[in-house]
Amino acid sequence: MPQPPPHAPPATIVPQPKRSGIHLRVNGKPYLHAGDPQMPLLWWLRDYLQLTGTKYACGIGACGACTVLVDGKAEHACLLPMQTLAGRSITTVEGLADADGTFSALQQAWVDEDAVQCGYCQAGQLVAAHALLQKHPQPGEAELDALPNLCRCGAYPRMRRAIVRAAAARKAGKP
Amino acid sequence: MDRRRFLQVMLGAGGALIVGIPARRAWAAPPPVPLALLGDSWSQLDAFVGIEANGRTLIGARAPEIGQGVRTALPRIIADELDADWARVEVIALPLGVEDRDNGQPRWTYGPQFAGGGRNIPAAWQDLRPAGAAARWLLRQAAAQQWNLPADRLDTRAGWVIAPDGRRLNYGDLAAAAAQISLPDGGVAPKPASAYTLIGQPAGDVDARAIVSGRQLYASDQYWGEGYVAVIARCPYADGELQQMDDTAARAVEGVEKIVPISTRATLGPLGQVPLAPGVAVLARDTWAALKGRAQLALRWRAHHGADASTATLAQQAAALLKGTPTTRVLARGDMAKALHGVRRLGAEYHVPFVAHATMEPMHCLAHISDGHAHLIVPTQEPRAALEVVRKLTGLDPGNILIELPRAGGGYGRRLDNDYVAEAVLLAQAAGKPVKLMWMREDDLTHDVYRPFGLHRLTAGVDRKGRITAWRHHLASTSRLWHRDVPGSRLWQSELQPDTWPVALMPAADLAWYALDFPLWRGAWRAPAHVSSVFAIESFLDEIAHATRQDPLKLRLALLQPARRLDTAHGVLDTARLANVLRQAARIIGWGTRAPAGHGRGLACAFVAGGYCAHAFEVSLHDDAVRFHRVVAVVDVGRVINPLGLEAQIAGGTLDALSTAMKLEITVEHGVVRQQNFPDYPIARRDELPREVEVMTVLSTASPSGAEDLGVPSAAPALANAIFAAGGPRLRRMPFRHALARGG
């Protein structure tokens, strides 16, 4: 019995049933969530995608540690059931750098200002600051004061300097 | 302990030089995920220094990083002695270094491993410098052999050995030869200070790049394939038990695998008195399923006692106690009756509420108990105490217990208790699988070990020249040593400090402590005891100054003169250094010059864990809001290891102290903590805090001290004193927001 060549197309093509679930994009890649549609984005990112940069700290949208971008807008991942995210595009802290790992101006400014202390709230801080710079490329004191993310270590002044530094770098043409 | 006795030289994989502690693990631990990335270097991790043939230098960081910067500072101390190229240094988080003694007791192989009390830097200064110095000595010997030159003519710089004629050899090329050389018996002396290249220079956090890219793995970011995620519904009473449970609905939740009750009385016998609540754990395939399952539990709890406990009446209870006989007369110096006779008598009371730690990362812990081994990933400040918990619950020998110490999302003293470790171990035992225990914010705020409540009553006698003749400090407080196997006669020790500024300088003094009973677990909270008593003391000194028309700065400086050295439980206090930071802070803020209209200036100082801090603030009041115009902190910590890290600790500590003093308290009604999450435990946001903290450091060659809590205690009284100077109320009760909201 002659074997078909290994890369030959099958004789008949039976289309697979369309997989049901929630289709969305995370950091540019397509994903399908087939589990509980009520699961908050936070736990899906962490427990299933192992994108653990996004942190849990309050679960009720009060601290900002889980801030992600949904279609470019800063949102609390702990408050977003997966069922609300079909077709949406999510960016997490892991998606702030270029594909080759080159830091954004904001990430670089964060390192240059040594803005981390314990570091746990920082992913949310960065994403929130990223969204701020999208909206206000040269944020004033009032916009900087209004960032709502909590930091228990008191690293606010250095984060402020990092955002101002990043704003200057972006003005000078850095991404 | 003489660390040099234990330093050994080894040849590692690929011709690497290793200077450190020989590993004698009873079992081969699998390389945990982040370390596996290092490939061959796994075998070198039981070392403080490993130099690979390619020149990459691994330095082990033994102290748990909780945001206090030790994972950067301690390796910098080693790297300086080594003359390493910091750009080529990779810092490796060491697990708890422990092996079995013959008698089954643990032997600690890396020296002290903990986080808290500012003790890491002084300890490292004593025992980690020799590790770097030894490696550098070996590399120079190896180069000397190769060049046939005397070793003492060779220089070292940034990862190279340099000959007098300019020839250079990289450490990586010398590592294999250096590993064949034996260390001298007497050990190797550390460098002279003049040769420091890294110590005293600013360095960013070694984990910063991983953190800003979301790659830094905290405990909860780690996953063990076959394990469960667990959350626990805990008894809301400090002393209570499960009365009734219906878990039918919880079991029906998809993804819920097991329901495990934790009855503390039955299971915790071997642990003795620890802050651990009875609970019902839901073990599930993911966090969301566990949370959904927990929400479906129908539980009824019963209080053994304390069901009527309320913080609303605590101040009255404390005031009533202060009228009676003290539990402990802590200090009686001089003749108080005489010292108070015929002088002006001043007095004031200060209230300090319970507060929580509220670390941004709640208490998470991973545990895997199997085949006579235990493997834990614990963000703890007290790894040795965590090991004891595991030993007692499992009966395993120390050498069969691996405790990894990931970076922790804040500590502030909360992680000195290992209650969550006990929970994770119990659940892993019950499940027979690895367990990742997750604490939610509500769990964290309602089951903390809280900063003690205290009512401070201060009295002073002041003579006609404005000199303080007598000093009385009576405190009714809920000692944090309560229920900690500490005899009643020593419970005051966590609450009052009879040997330090300013009481040790008073001609007559009377300190007394009154035991206030309350059924809530207490623990260490940033600069424990200082953080409460410094608020009372530095506010009271300010009140004395105003009442007797003295300058608050001059009043303090007069007390601190002439220069004296006081032996305190927290190191030697040099009054000249305390006076200096006060003077510097005052100079920077413009003390003595006219403040703009409506502005007020206040200052305060503290001596904490061998370090000195003075705060000076300039504020104004606008309705019920405080506006910060200047916030100055001057510190003297001896020789500074990393000025960038020090600045972060002092500025951050200052802001945390202001957030707590202005806004935070834990209250209890009917035996239950009321605060559940950040909306009712409102840590200050950016718009409520100063935009900048001006941190100044005194240049010093004194032995270095730790700074993690140094910026905390004097910030609250400096604010209270500044608000009073700005025409606001005298704030004697924390949190200040109550009095400020009333408009004084």
List the chains of the largest interface with their residue counts: A-B, 61 and 64 residues
Number of strands of chain B: 32
Order of helices and strands of chain A: EEHEEEHHHH
| Main β-sheet, spatial strand arrangement of chain A | 2-1-5-3-4
Work out the strand percent of chain B.
Answer: 15-25%
**Main sheet strand line-up of chain B:** 13-14-11-21-18-19-20
Walk me through this protein's architecture:
The complex is a heterodimer of chains A (175) and B (744). Chain A is α+β, with helices and mostly antiparallel strands. Chain A has helices at 41-48, 105-112, 122-135, 141-146, 156-171; strands spanning 22-26, 29-33, 67-70, 73-76, 89-91. Chain A has 2 domains: 22-95, Ubiquitin-like (UB roll); 105-171, Orthogonal Bundle (DNA polymerase, domain 1), CATH 1.10.150.120. Chain A has a 5-stranded mixed beta sheet with strand order 2-1-5-3-4, covered by helices on one side. In chain A, β1 (22-26) and β2 (29-33) form a beta hairpin. Chain B is an alpha+beta fold and 744 residues long. In chain B, α2 (70-82) runs parallel beside α4 and α4 (129-147) crosses α5 (171-178). At the A-B interface, α1, α2, α3, α4 and α5 of A face α6, α9 and α18 of B.
Key traits:
heterodimer, A: 175 residues, alpha+beta, Ubiquitin-like (UB roll), DNA polymerase, domain 1, elongated, B: 744 residues, Aldehyde Oxidoreductase, domain 4, seven-stranded mixed β-sheet, globular, disordered N terminus
Layout of secondary structure:
The complex is a heterodimer of chains A (175) and B (744).
Chain A: E1 22-26, E2 29-33, H1 41-48, E3 67-70, E4 73-76, E5 89-91, H2 105-112, H3 122-135, H4 141-146, H5 156-171
Parallel strand pairs in A: 1-5
Antiparallel strand pairs in A: 1-2, 3-4, 3-5
Helix pairs in contact in A: 2-5
Chain B: E1 8-12, E2 16-20, H1 33-36, E3 47-51, E4 57-61, H2 70-82, E5 89-93, E6 98-100, E7 106-108, H3 120-127, H4 129-147, E8 155-157, E9 160-162, E10 168-170, H5 171-178, H6 208-212, E11 228-234, E12 240-246, H7 248-251, E13 256-262, H8 264-267, E14 279-284, H9 287-295, E15 298-303, H10 314-322, E16 328-333, H11 336-340, E17 344-352, E18 365-370, E19 373-377, H12 383-394, E20 401-404, H13 419-431, E21 435-437, H14 441-446, E22 454-462, E23 468-477, E24 509-515, H15 530-547, H16 552-560, E25 565-568, E26 571-574, H17 575-589, E27 600-608, E28 611-622, E29 625-636, H18 643-663, E30 668-669, E31 672-673, E32 694-697, H19 715-725, H20 737-741
Parallel strand pairs in B: 4-5, 11-21, 19-20, 23-24, 29-32
Antiparallel strand pairs in B: 1-2, 2-3, 3-4, 6-7, 8-9, 9-10, 11-14, 12-15, 13-14, 16-24, 17-22, 18-19, 18-21, 22-23, 25-26, 27-28, 28-29, 30-31
Helix pairs in contact in B: 2-3, 2-4, 4-5, 12-13, 15-19, 16-17
